[in-house]
Amino acid sequence: MLQKFALAVKTKTIEFFAEEDEEEEEERAVGVDDSDACPAPEEVITGQRVVVLRPDPAPGPDPETLAAAALAGLSSFQAAYLHLQTAHSPFVSDAVRSADRAAVSHLRRLSELKRLYLSAGPGPSPSLTSALPLSFLLEAQVLDNQDLLRIFEALVDRLQSDIDRKDAEAAVLEKALADLDGAGVQLADRLERACMPAEERVESLLTVGVFDSVLRDTCRLTHRFARVLVDLMNLSGWNLGAAANCICPDVNFTKPGHCRYAILSYICLGMFGGFDSYDFCDDGDGVDMDEIDVSIRRTDSLQQFIEHSALDPLELMRDFPSSDFVKFCKKKYAKLIHPGIESSLLRNSATGESSLGSLTPSSPLYESFASMASSIWMLQKLAWAYNPVVEIFQVARGTEFSMVFMETIVPKFDKLHIDSGTAPRPKVGFTVVPGFHVGKTVIQSRVYLDDSEQTL
């Protein structure tokens, strides 16, 4: 624009001086002197031309310039709106306010551009020309480039966020893969054991730890049944000390409450009777072990153990009353709750009929007895799956205490007192829970010690 203005001024100056030269030549041709040519001050000078110098008018607005400005404004608004969306997730209040102000500013710029264009009309307009100088286009281009940079930064941040999320997902998948690898190793081990010969597969399952775990569960259920029975005896007015003396005569109990161990012994020894018989028969009419093939005996016993462990004993007694397990329960219950005990325990005052005489769901001992009997039944089947068969033993009364084969049933018993040489070794008062020989491993028998000097 400055260059055009300079060219215009130069042209007008050349024309002005050219006209003056022509006039001087004409005056010299007619012989007019310089002194005559200068008029007096009061004379009117005629024939003189006045030239007014004006710059060329600015060109009208270029449609391409207007379109570029509008596009730059739209691009800037798009970038500001993208920043506004990004600031909402996660929500950053300062960033939201800044992006909102930028978006509003760009909208105002576009609105002003639209207003100026509509007010100018189709032809050139000085107001629009003054409102859209060259610097406006340059500024719009600079802002457009800055907004593009901000868009790229936002895209980079979003891509980095996606990368972090993918890394987290990859870490989770790696952990899942490691877990699957571990599960695959376990399945491979199980498959290897499943492909073993039957004899080797049974040997891998039958360990001392498995038998000891089932035995501990059996002892827990036996204690539960004993507590229920003792509560019924207390409600019936029984003298527990006299009952314990009838079961284990002349035993020196350290505390009066220890008489319950005699009742527990009565239950355990009664339930474990016939444990060393293949069909759990304690009357001497059981099947002889020598008549059974070892592999058949082991496979059959293990199968019965697995099948029975998956059944509910209460449902089994209700749905299969003629099964061997139900016969076992009825026989053991009749042995424990004999008519002498039945006649002195709880009775129905209205009918005079005992609620304990038979193993029926109405008996208060029914559920606890069924659970205990089921656990002892499974333990016996498991014992006969071993080779050699698990042997049961109990300690006779008066035997000196041995920590190898026995453990005291009394909690917190001072074992240092047993091994000290200051007093004679305590004697066994009675066996509470029998012991077992699992191969060459001994599972200790739990006994109550008859010794007035034992400490708790």
UniProtKB/TrEMBL annotation:
InterPro entries: DUF641_pln, GIL1-like, GIL1_IRKI_C. Residues 392-448 form the GIL1/IRKI C-terminal domain. This is DUF641 domain-containing protein. Pfam families: DUF641 (PF04859), GIL1_IRKI_C (PF24994). Residues 65-182 form the DUF641 domain. Residues 149-176 form a coiled coil. Keywords: Coiled coil. Residues 19-39 are annotated as: Disordered. The lineage of its organism: Eukaryota, Viridiplantae, Streptophyta, Embryophyta, Tracheophyta. It comes from Ensete ventricosum. GO terms for biological process: negative gravitropism; response to red or far red light.
